[in-house]
Write a structure and sequence with these properties.
Shape: globular
Distance between the termini: 25 Å
Radius of gyration: 17 Å
Strand content: under 5%
Number of helices: 7
Number of strands: 0
Structural class: mainly alpha
Mean pLDDT: 94
Largest sheet: none
Helix content: 55-70%
Length: 162
Amino acid sequence: MLPLAHVGLTLASFGFLRKKGLVKGRPKYAKLALASLLPDLIDKPLAIFVFPESKSALLFSHTLILHLAVWAWTALKDKFLWPYALAFSGHLLLDRIWEFPQTFLFPFKGWSFHKWRDVGSPQAFGRAYFEVMGEHPELLVGEVLGFIALLWFCRERVRGKV
C-alpha cells in the first residue's frame, strides 16, 4: 500500500471506533498517521541508501520480532501508547505481510528479506512502485479507499464527532 491507504484507513478506523465509544480519550491523530507510516519511513530509506543490494523494500520494520518488541514495550512501559502501537502494526495488514514470510519471520526464516526489485536508488524505487501498480491495479483500490476514508474522517473531525 501507499501512504493514502495507510493514513486514510488508519485514521478512519480510529475515528469510527472512537465514535462508537470503543476508543477512550482522544488519540493524537497526527501521531496515529505517523505511526501508520513509520514502518515505511524507516525501511524505505534503509532499502535505498543502506541495503540497496537487498532488493527489498520491506526490512526490519516489517518483521514480527520488531512488532512484538513494540507491543511488549507498550504493555510494560506505557499502556497509553497502545493506539500508536496498533497503528504501527496495522501497517503490516495493509501491506499484506503474510505474502512475505521471509521478511515477516526474519530472522527465524533466515538472514535475508523477501527479494522484490531493484530499489537501490530513489529513481529505481519510484520505477519499481510504478511497475507494481501496473501489474497489480488492485493496489490502486486501496489508495482510493484510503482517500475516501480520509475524506470521511476529515468531515467527521470538522463536525467534532471524532
